[in-house]
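Appendix B, example 12.
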Amino acid sequence: MLWVKAFHVVFMVTWFAGLFYLPRLFVYHAMSDDAASNERFKVMERKLYRFTTPSMLLCIGLGIWMLVEYAWSAYSRSGWLHAKLLLVALLVGYHLYCGRLVREFQEDRNRRSHVFYRWINELPVPILLLVVILVIVKPF
C-alpha cells in the first residue's frame, strides 16, 4: 500500500504543477496581442491540459484505491477525511473549469482580462494548503 500512496503523492504533485501553470498561461495569453503568440499559447495550454488530466485521474484512482483498501474503514468517522474529499471535489471542478477556459481560448472566445486569470491562478493554493494540513495533522 505504500507504493500506492507514493504514486498518489507523485500524481498529486504533477496535477498541481499543471493547475498552477495553466492559469499563468491564461494570464499571458490574455495579454498577448499578436497571432503568433496566440497560436503558441493555444498549443501550450492544450498540451499542458492533456498532460495534467491523466495526472488528475491517476491521483484520484489511487486515492480511491487507498479508500477502499484501508482509509475508509480507518477514517470514515474522521472529519478531516470528509473535508479532504470535499476539497478534492472542488479541485476537480476547478480542473474542469480550466478545461473550459482552454476551449474558450482555442476558439478565440476569451472575453476576460489578464487580471481575472491572475485571481483564478491563486485558487489552488489554499486548497493545497488545507489538504496537506488535513492529511498530515488530521485536526478533527
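Residues 30 and 113 are 6 Å apart (CA to CA). The mean pLDDT is 97.
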